[in-house]
Request: fold
Amino acid sequence: MKWKDYIIGLLFCLSVSAFANNPLTVMQEWKAGTVVSLSDVEAYGIDNCFVAEEISDAVFARMQGKSYKKNCTIPRNQLRYLRLLHRNNKGEILLGEMVCNVKIANDLVGIFRQLFEASYPIERMVLIDAYNADDETSMRHNNTSSFNFRTISGGKKLSAHARGMAVDINPLYNPYYKKRTNGTVVVQPATGKSYVNRKGNYPYKIVRGDLCYRLFLEHGFTWGGAWRNSKDYQHFEKSNN
Reply:
């Protein structure tokens, strides 16, 4: 190989590597779950990190047959893809994403921006399609999510998630709990059983009056942790009216 060709090849490789590691490139690709720095965020622009967009063909392809099932009755144009930032319990900044109903998209963009600015910890925020739209698996990974065309737990009625009108926050540490009349107990995710005791001290716990609770209620949501016949500590939903 001639030295000239070698140098040209080396410069090409270096330029490709620099492009791939460019903070703006990382942010533009927006691969949810990626850890980024504050300088990355500042270079990209904080306003560009909290936006609601129409569902692109690429995102819709990820949802097909998973959260957006063949029998889904919610038109694509009634859903929005959210680009969001969040911090985990270590203080790391991560790229997050969510699909929700257009009716609550602006609410969620505002809520999650305030949570981020207050360093409120959210461990994971990727589309539930990454878990084949399996709610139990997503919850076990403490994944925060919204839209998933499915029925309510143990019933035939469509869930508020099927309309994209509900959000589950840090679900592993804020499980769904119900004691049936026959004495059996349902906990979802099953691995969250130890977190049913709300007096415990553990990360990502939502309690009445904390910032997450206050922000969602200020935006007109109700909290599953206040339900009488069951408790869904992860769950915030808004009326479909």
